[in-house]
Please model this.
Amino acid sequence: MRQILLHPGFYKTGTSSMQHFLWANRDALDPYFEVRLMRYFKPVVRLSGMFSRRKNPLQLLDMVPLLDDCFAEFPPRADRDLLLSAEGLCGHLPGTYNIQDYSAVPVLMTYLAGYLVERFPDAQVKLLFTTRNSYDWLFSTYKHQLRAQRLTLDFTEFETKYKDAAQFDKVLQEVVTALAPLPVTTMPMSDALRHPLGPGAALVGHMDVPDLVRSSLIPVGKGNEGPSDALWAKFLSINRSSLPDEAAAEAKMHSRKPRTLVGGSRCERATHRRAWRISQDGHDVDPIVSHGQRQASVAAYGLGHARADQRHYQDRNDAFCDPRPAFAG
Model:
């Protein structure tokens, strides 16, 4: 292994589209590098989220054992580079659980990058953060949180409360200082969007892949795109209503329409993004995908990927949203 690229976010900077692109093109990219998405690091992502809420360093005592378990279950191949992409490694999205900013990121990256350096001493470890201009990031985050929780602030109020969360330069400077001399680079979302094949191809551009292979990769559409203007205004109205929380969540659910990532007919045949929410008792709250289809997707992953996928289906407390293979019909 010559290179490990850690792409830990940030949220709402095109990460979902990038990860979908990596999965859709996994076969073409496999001779050059392995991909590890959030499904491989769910326990580590959960721990990172806990730390972002409480900032208790004692919580991170479990970081190394959890990473050991993840790499033991799915050991990377020595003859391939490695790309890790999971925005949850930066903790929760600000605005979740009243988290004000990304101040937990420098500490989390110290643990994560330090672990990779020690575990893979012969590899060059690099970090790449995708960023976004402050206004667009705050507005995208605002729409996401309107959908995800009972947020009643208007955007002006939200922007004022969480403006520090969009100051990526400050956080990244702390990361650079903490991790020196490891390379830490950034890629603005606006730059990634200029790539002819989309943000995912821009991310692949940081890996050692022949030009001919890059040009033949399959483009995909937008990933975790926020609600439209009309829809987020409706979500705000629902959140401010007198409906009980459960009824409000159901009303927002029924206001949404499932989206398909589209990148041309070839992409439509090859891959599809599916999202669903599973309640604690195991029944679908948002039945975009049937149980039978989910079981079919597990089989489609193959032996190694199926084990990772099944582990996430067993986690009934989280909203799971990750790239999925296409289904016939």
Remarks:
- The chain has 16 helices and seven strands.
- Residues 259-295, 297-329 have pLDDT under 50 and may be disordered.
